[in-house]
Amino acid sequence: MEELSAKDLRERIAAGRITSVEATGAVFGRIDEREPVIGAYLSTYRETALARAAEVDRRIAAGEQVGQLAGVPVAIKDNMCSMFGATTCASRILENFHSPYNATVVKKLLAADAVIVGKTNMDEFAMGSSTENSGLKQTVNPWDTSRVPGGSSGGSAAAVAGRLCYAALGSDTGGSIRQPASFCGVVGLKPTYGRVSRYGLVAYGSSLDQIGPITQTVTDAALMMNVIAGHDPADSTSVDEAVAPVCDYLARLDEPVENLRIGIVPQLNSGADESVQRALNAAIDVYKAAGADIVEVDMPHSDYAIGAYYIIATAEASSNLARYDGVHYGHRSDKAEDYVEVYSKSRAEAFGKEVKRRIMLGTYALSSGYYDAYYLKALKVRNLIRRDFTEAFEKCDCIMMPVAPTTAFKLGEKVDDPLTMYLSDVYTIAANLAGIPGISIPCGFDENNLPIGLQILAPAFAEDKLLRIAKMFEAETDLHRKKPTIV
User: Fold this and answer.
1) For 137-152, what is the mean pLDDT?
2) Where are the domains of the chain?
3) For the domain 1-235+255-487, what is the CATH code?
4) Residue 152 annotated among the catalytic residues of the structure
5) pTM
6) Strand intervals (E) in 328-414
7) Which of 77, 210, 358, 459 has a Cα-to-Cα distance from 122 of 20 to 30 A?
8) 77 catalytic, yes or no?
């Protein structure tokens, strides 16, 4: 049963060949066996999940209409509000916080009759590239338990790779879906900014954050997008479907893109490890064999992307995290004697080092006398990067590049060197600054049998074409079927 994709499982449940209770029970069996090693979940909901699965089975047996994910066990990253369980953002400051409402994506999963089995670990407040910044537990890579799963959606990627769920949701602010998907050998899609509602997503960088699926296959990513995409009146940044219509992402998925033009940015690819470059070139050869043309495109402002990102993202984090003050909700210090100490000691006790570092960076960039020199200049660079992509897409249908410069690195290897850690996202950040969609799909392995991801970027709201391009590669290879060591 665990070899099935989410779509295959959904079809078998609908046909009565498998019950959701059987599938959900099997997932919890694997969680019992593998979760003590992988550490993908911050919380699981066995009793309620099995009860929900039984209800889906009852409705199917009664001939009632059910949703697109009926009976499929899925997971969500623990920065998405839910009325069930805690919403912790892997932070001690929210360790006991219970949301009074569901995020829009959670509502949509429930409306599609998915079975939510748990909430996954992450870097605290989604700030990190390895999930080592979690304030609550350690997650490891199922391909090599001495290595990181990537971040910040490392728990979601590890859960999918370890077959501890059939699909999961993550969030991507600077690569936090695509990079862990690459490290864990699964598919990770960051939709266009505004394509998926952020209502109920605990904010890190409000102009950069985007929710998206992490799955075993491109087909499953398309299925998840069918459920979560669309306008939401509760989210002011959600794009109206009259402006950018949402399509059925499965309808034309198996149709190759004709006369495909692939953009390559030579100066970007040269910084990756030899094994990553080799896998990228081999993937492009697959597309060439399918008739694609390769076009060199220029991204003259790409060198400034990481600098602009770490000003904009930290500035927004400084503003967004000001609400965690020990007064309204969350951790409150019992050592404070007045309200000034309540604020300072509560935050000092409960925020981790990386969160404190980014709050201080952002506060500095926004402070009087430095706003124009840093934040305003970063916004101008962001516009230049967005223009670079617009001009590049006039010459090509998509751009291909590495997801990360390396494969999954060792636990503890970069945790004391934040600048080196930040460079793990050097290839993914620009897409968030520009607001365009990007996907990571498995494209090879290094000499240590660690997965390598191919990143494909497309114009805004072109998820349909992006998924079709990704599916072209997946249809010609079996890399997505490879199992990690722990499975």
Assistant:
1) 98
2) 1-235+255-487
3) 3.90.1300.10
4) yes
5) 0.97
6) 398-402
7) 459
8) yes
